[in-house]
Amino acid sequence: MFKNNLYKGLGLVLICAAYTACKLPEVAQRTENKNVPATFNGSQDTVSTASVKWRNFFTDPNLINLIDTALKNNQELNITLQDIEIAKNEIKAKKGELLPSVSYGIGAGLDKVGRYTSSGAGDASTEITPGKGVPEILPDYQFGLQANWEADIWHKLRNSKKAAINHYLSTIEGKNFVITNLIAEVANSYYELLASDNQLETVKKTIELQSNALELMKIQKQATRVNELAVRKFEAEVLSSKSLEFDIQQDITETENKINFLLGRFPQPIIRDKSSFTDLVPATVQTGLPAQLLANRPDIKQAEYELAAAKLDVKVAKAQFYPSLGISASIGYQAFNPSYLLRTPESLIYSLAGDLAGPLINRNAIKAEYSSANAKQLQAVFDYEKTILNGYIEVANQLSKISNLQKSYDLKSKQVTALTQSIDISNDLFKAARADYFEVLMTQRDALQSKLELIETKKQQLNAVVDIYHALGGGWN
Question: Which pLDDT score, from 0 to 100, does residue 16 have?
């Protein structure tokens, strides 16, 4: 009779468990799209510059030293390294949940029960040795071990551990992405600093040229060939160029401090070769195939690991609907007198129990958690697709930029040559009274502007090469 009731009870529990487990809320599903265009601009070359180590990609020893220092001292990178340690500890915690937890306990106390209670009447008749009963105030001494373990029937704990592993791998890729960003930012700032140095040198030479022209105007005024207006115009141009000189010096200071910040140090001079800027030739870049971005770019790999973790989190949330099996056990010794504490088997106590429990009514919290986990999975899918799309567009933009900047640089070089020659021509024509002072003034102004623009274009060329190296996923390996 007892066995029949037991079987009926177990059957009812299993039916309830199956019902609650099978009736899950409806959620949206989406598979990520990994498709990318076959090539960049029709090129079938499979070699990618992303495989080149940054020490070999950059040739300036001063820049290499700066990047080395940044990789050691940059605070953002060091913060990211601690994220990796946090994720690593999370894996250890999830692994621990798969194993039984064992604890020890030691206790002592006093217990006084009423004489006219069932416990008191029972204690009064108990004799441990002939002629001796249990004391009215009963001490209690005990020590032992306790163990608890949840059987991972539905792989809830194992999936949670796998999700933690994917989060850990994601933090590693996040660190790699910080490295690529840091290298690109240091390199771009370094080239910006060199460009500002050359612009400052150009402005100083122009000021010298303009000052000579101003003196010429003063002489021409004394000879009554020009009036006071010409002198004032040239004087104003010299003052404007001197003002521009201080603006560039401020840019140099801010760029130096930006580099020092990236290097994790207080302001100090940045060692650099100022004279080599105009001779720098942008490195040749090979883009490889778009599909290689999936393996080369750390941000894409990071998004992929986060997506894998989100899928596992959905499985963990789904397992909350299923019943869980817990097993607990304990063993130890308990007695009212320390002298009896280690007597075996009289003072030996032990227990073994198992329980099967699952949600039946009012599962709103579990449903909400499951729906949230699925929504986060969809977010991870969209983020993964967005990261791939962004990576491809970045490379495409930089390819176009490199091509157009080269054409622009060639034309600006010719413009600078023509305007530089025009300065001498305008001066000669002015001395021969075949050109007025305004033509001389405008020629000098246009020549200065074209030289500054040429330097700016050179900087943009170097930055574009750094940016496409970064966009291809280079620098972290």
Answer: 56
Question: Residue 20's pLDDT is what?
Answer: 54
Q: What is the pLDDT of residue 363?
A: 86
- pLDDT at residue 97 greater than cutoff 70: yes
Q: How far apart are CA 70 and CA 68, in angstroms?
A: 5
- Tell me whether the omega of the peptide bond preceding residue 345 falls within 30 degrees of 0, making it cis: yes
% residues pLDDT > 70 (the chain) = 90
What pLDDT is stored for residue 465 in this prediction? 96
Q: How many domains does the chain have?
A: 2
Q: In this structure, is residue 241 part of a structural domain?
A: yes
Of 322, 265, 74, 340, the C-alpha closest to 185 is 74
pTM of structure: 0.87
Q: Is the dihedral of CA 315, 102, 327, 111 positive or negative?
A: negative
* 6 lies in some domain: no
Which of residues 357, 374, 407 is at a domain's end? 357
Domain that holds residue 136: 104-151+327-357
CA distance 396 to 40: 7
Q: Is residue 77 part of a domain?
A: yes
CATH at residue 432? 1.20.1600.10
Amino acid, single-letter form, for residue 354: G
Q: Are residues 69 and 147 in the same domain?
A: no
Same domain, 144 and 38: no
CATH number of the domain residue 129 falls in: 2.20.200
Same domain for 226 and 369: yes
Smallest CA-to-CA distance from 230 within 210, 209, 214, 212 is with 214
Contact 369, 318 (CB under 8 A): no
Confidence tier at 274 by pLDDT (50, 70, 90): confident
For residue 78, CA distances in Å to 64, 73, 75, 83, 181 come to 19, 7, 5, 9, 14
The reply to whether 9 falls in a domain is no
Residue 437 pLDDT exceeds 90: no
Average pLDDT, the chain: 89
pLDDT at residue 93 in the model: 95
Percent of all residues in the chain with a pLDDT value above 90, rounded to a whole number = 68
